[in-house]
Amino acid sequence: MRNYLMNKSRFCYAAIAFFSLLFFSTCKDPDYIEFLEEAPEENFDIDAVDTFTVRSFTVKEDTLSIDEFSADLFGALNDSVFGLTHYSMFFQVELPAVDYDFGANPVATSAVLRLRLNEDGRSVGNTSFPQTLNVYKLNERIFLNRSYVTGRRISHVSDEAGELTTAFNTADSVLNIPLSQSFASSLLPTDPTQYSTNEDFKDFMNGLAVIPDTTGIPSGDGAIVQFLLTSPFSDLILNYTNDSGSHSVVYPVNSSSARISGVSHNYNGTPVADQLAAPQQQFHRVFAQPHGSVKIKLEFPGLKDLVDEYESTNVALMQAQVIIPAITGQGDTLSPPSELLLYGIDQNGRSFVLPDALFTYYGGNYDASENRYQFIITQYLQEEFMKMQSDPAYSSRGVYVIVKSDNPLEANRLIARAKGNSSQPEITLRLTFTKLN
Predict the structure, then answer these.
(1) Which residues pair with 214 in a beta bridge?
(2) Do 82 and 289 form a contact (C-beta atoms < 8 A)?
(3) CA angle, corner 293, sides to 287 and 298, nearest 5?
(4) Which helix (H) or strand (E) holds 389?
């Protein structure tokens, strides 16, 4: 189905209807946009602008929430373009049972942390490269449903509770990290009330941090993978003895447990750093990476010229496409993200959800056959046209291109082809419009 937007005077804006046959109905405002399933039955000329001017820049991403993702990212990747990126996991464990009783004269004998790899989750990088997982006790309590954002540091004790060096392409889907004797002993309560309720226990045992060792990772090596902390196979196990014999107790991680993804981006000496240091300069490539890293800003300076050209003419915008080609291959073995988002930019520089994002035609998924992403943003640009028509001082701020932070959860980054690549497809705004007679 091809969608059409037509600007007519002396009518009204329409209300969005959430139906498969999308349309706008009339009301009592002086102007309106009509959204049609078929082309208008009037005399019109069709123009397609395939090489509309697009200015693109790599800019720093805003802070965003990094708690309770659908899975849990972990690992370190030393990317020649984006630098060193690493993800850590901070989480709580739950009481094995309310008022748990260790019996008479308990003595901790060992402890192990089990972590379930998400075999269905998307990894990025070389999963055969061995990485070291370092485990620490948290030095502060964390809370479920409290907002934790990128850049927030969660403190942990300096003494390591345990470590494991392994590759992530192992056939074992559950990693077992042996923990120190001192850590195991620290789990035994010094006061029975510390195990009375989950809240009391979490005040006593703040939680755990699992942090990758980032030293010695060559450029182009390392990997970021996904764990499932809330899986029944992710837990903390304490083995102990008391006067009655040997016992094991399991501390689960579940939906009541706070989970925070710690993420760090270091761009030193990379092309990303070069672009962030020259915010007004256009480059042949632009970059986007999720979780508080970088995004792409697209500007469409020719929109004002188009409005001026047709100032005295009714213009029907039939379709507006943004096409973003990905650069892959040529020594870059990292696959691009599976999905992107476009956000509008208001006059104060703040992001907002585009009206087209409400509809199935919007797009944003990676097309592997074409090696590109496509968005349909007809309604948004038609609204921008109308603002420029009614206010000569109004200037469209463009859109941001962002890698989704969750659903799907992934650490994949985008290298997009920008200006100056005449032999290859570049970021393009394609407008299909009519000048009504």
Answers:
(1) none
(2) yes
(3) 40
(4) helix 378-390
197 three-state secondary structure: coil
* Token pair listed for 39: 């082309």
Q: What is the pTM of this model?
A: 0.86
Structure tokens at 201: 């226990």
Instruction: State the burial class of residue 153 (Cβ atoms within 10 Å of its Cβ: 0-12, 13-18, 19+).
Output: exposed
The residues, ordered by sequence, that sit 6+ positions from 135 with a Cβ below 8 Å of its Cβ are 113, 160, 161, 162, 163, 177, 179, 208, 209, 210
Rounded CA-CA distance 259/72 in Å is: 8
- Cβ atoms of residues 432 and 318 within 8 Å: yes
Query: Minimal CA–CA distance to 359: which of 6, 17, 10, 2?
Result: 17
Decide: 61 and 54 in contact? Cβ < 8 Å.
Answer: no
Residues 304 and 308: their CA atoms lie apart, in Å, by: 6
pLDDT-derived band at 40, boundaries 50, 70, 90: very low
- Find, among 229, 194, 204, the residue nearest to 138 by Cα: 204
Structure tokens at 353: 């959800």
The Cα–Cα gap between 176 and 149 comes to: 29
Across residues 382-402, what is the average pLDDT? 91
Q: What is the dihedral of CA 413, 114, 183, 74, to 10 degrees?
A: 0
**What average pLDDT does range 6-17 have in this prediction?**
32
Instruction: Give the whole-angstrom CA distance, residue 395 versus residue 397.
Output: 6
Looking at 41-50, 112-121, 140-149, which range is the least confident one?
41-50
How many angstroms separate the CA atoms of 238 and 335, rounded?
40
Which tokens belong to 65?
């929430």
3-state secondary structure 42-67: CCEEEEEEEEECCEEEEEECCCCECE
3-state secondary structure of 358: helix
